[in-house]
Amino acid sequence: MVNEDPSTLSQNEINDLISGGNPTDDVAGSLLEEMGVVGGDRTAPGESEKRWLPCQLGEKRGLVSKKHDKAMESLHQQMSRSLETSLSGMLGVLIDVNYETIDTLTFSDYVMSLSEISCLGRVKAPGFSGTIIVEVGLELVFPIVEKLLGGKGATATPNTRRLTTIERKIIERLFDEVIDCMTSVWKQLKPDVSFVLDSIETDTDAIQGGSQQEQMTYVVIGVKFANVQGKISLCYSSSVIEPILSESTLEEFGNTSDIEEHEKEFSKSKIKNRAYKTNVWVRAVLPKTLLPMRDLSELKVGSMIELDTKVRNKQIVDPIIIEVGKKPRFYARLGRFEKNRAVKVTGLYEVAD
Q: What DSSP character marks residue 286?
């Protein structure tokens, strides 16, 4: 039977082509000749005789345009840098986080691409109907849990088991950091947007539901520390991101110089916030004194050491030195605040020439 559509091949024609045989009819043969597969001795047909249609790839991927992709890429590059800082502080090790790829696929294809056992966070955006799925690869989950429990967490183990209740509770810290970084970068486009962790799932079946043909934007972020390497992926419903990525918003955010300025301001504020939360070792040190080795060797419990410190009216006159990170930074005066001993900063420490 001859295939009625000259732009496609029948199953028999495909089988003959794979097996190396000749096409079964003239329609298929002429089509292959036009494609340059067979009939090399024939004169190439003119432009008017061509029966194939041009296919422009990359013109538009699903419901998300190229302009949306550019904004998404910029946002997640910022998010990667922010996540690098926050995860390094959380785990106490140097972590390398990089934006990798962006793609578009249907929800059913996304679910089919997932492993049977995974670590998935279902994220909701109040005010929007769609959902967001954050997946943390198991190659990252178990080393991070081990690190948060005080272990080394330096070697990736091929562990594909389901997380225990305690491990799921611990890994919430990681999801909180990811969602915090997501919220920070998306607020640049819509100040009132927020993301909330709804649940953590380990079975792919738990995220089934909704429209199977809904377009999803899939973003991959690579994470590496010590000998551990894995990925964190984010899958956004088009019903969530399209209202945010409106034309007016993109025009305001889409200029390259504006994007760079957004990135600088975001990084600066993020570093400042992290620095404000950092604990620093501070101590007040009395003026030093010299003690002969003979007197030092005779010290025992209850011994008194006489300091070379001026005292007036039972108050130390010589300034106290405040050390920050084991380095002298300020002069201070000894005193009391309410019922606690305290020191009052009187000036900056100056190193003698």
A: P
Instruction: Name the most confidently modeled range: 160-169, 316-325, 344-353.
Output: 160-169
Give the domain range for residue 313: 282-348
Q: What is the pLDDT of residues 295-327, one digit of tens each?
A: 888 888 988 887 777 766 666 667 888 888 788
Counting the structural domains of the chain, the total is 3
Would 58 be classed as within a structural domain? no
Encoded tokens for 232: 């964190």
Assigned token pair, 153: 């967490």
* E strands present in 58-164: 96-106, 117-124, 131-136
259 and 111 in one domain? yes
Distance between CA atoms of residues 232 and 178, nearest Å: 9
Give residue-wise pLDDT tens across range 234-277: 999 888 888 887 755 565 555 544 555 655 666 666 667 766 77
Q: CA–CA separation, 191 vs 55, rounded Å?
A: 40
For 239, phi and psi rounded to 5 degrees? -70, -10
Indicate the DSSP class of residue 304: -
Question: What are phi and psi for residue 228, nearest 5 degrees?
Answer: -100, 135
Task: Return the structure tokens found at 323.
Answer: 């050390």
266 in a structural domain: yes
What are 34's two structure tokens?
């036009």
Higher-scoring residue by pLDDT: 54, 292: 292
